Amino acid sequence: MIDAVVMSSFDLKNKKVTVLGAARSGVAAAHLALRLGATAKLSEFKKKSDVGDDIEHLNAKVICEFGGHTQAFIEDSDYVILSPGIRQDCSAALWAIQNHIPVLGEIELAYRFCPAPVIAVTGSNGKTTVSTLIAECLKKAGRKVFLCGNIGLPFSKVVEQVTPDSYVVLEVSSFQLESTEQFRPYVGVLLNFSENHLDRHKDLEEYFQAKSKIFANQKAGDFAVLNYQDQRIRKLAEKLTAQVAFFNTPEKVVLSSNPNELAVMEAVRLLGVSPETCHEVFGSFKGVEHRMEWVRTLDGVDYINDSKSTTAEATRW
Questions:
Q1: DSSP state of 47
Q2: What is the longest distance spanned by two Cα atoms in the chain?
Q3: Strand ranges of the sheet holding 118-122, from the earlier edge strand across to the other edge
Q4: What is the pLDDT of residues 13-48, one digit of tens each?
Q5: Which of 194, 222, 223, 228 could form a disulfide with 246 if both were Cys (CB 3.0 to 4.6 A apart)?
Q6: What angle do CA 9, 15, 21 make, to 5 degrees?
Q7: DSSP string for residues in 271-287
Q8: Which pLDDT score is estimated for 286?
């Protein structure tokens, strides 16, 4: 039985909220703050002419600065919200912390207004595919589902539509997890871990700790779904408060040769979805764009678009 979702007493009405970063998630966070009664401000390091299309849909009531995160723009804030692309140790965030202004990530902001259980998926590879399949399996089982996060639809954009009888399936990256505080998924999934993002994280240990934050606030009634074949992840089980459910175990690989499918089946099993329902979904699943996507066969040669695999480990997975 799912623990009751405890809504935060967090309130943005009449507060001043400054969002750092004007990409898709930042714009969504600014709009959420505005709808919740805050004075919303958006600070972007790039010049306005260099910002993407998302800024064109910005509500005129959002106060903006471009070309740098200035102290003067931030100093009257009640909260500073970080877009995933903004580092926690950037000078603007550090200044806010030093001056006792709470700094939260966009995922953390949206989570505090979420009334439904969250199934969160992270890992170095396979996050989008697994998140999509979990959502499809839940839908097939008759559940109401919101699929969002790092998959391309910001959590902040949909959280007000979420109802207590639904589920949120959330793809989360290390960039998003490192700026969480109270974030607590009912089911957290860690698929795998390999060298990546060392342009953002100082070393592999910091990268792993960011991934591990998906489990940081879980309680005994929650679940951590871990890859048994990854020794570092398997060892993490010893430190967790949540109930551990392994996928990719020797006895379970007979169910599927695909570790993504095994992760999906283990995650949705905890929510009462049968293996038969999962296999129905797997059988009709066309895949996710740019991930092992069949293009055409020409002169006996199959052409596959796997352009999202930017490392050898991603291709192998």
A1: -
A2: 65
A3: 144-149, 166-171, 118-122, 187-190, 223-227, 243-247
A4: 999 999 999 999 999 999 999 999 999 999 999 888
A5: 228
A6: 100
A7: TT--HHHHHHHHHH---
A8: 83
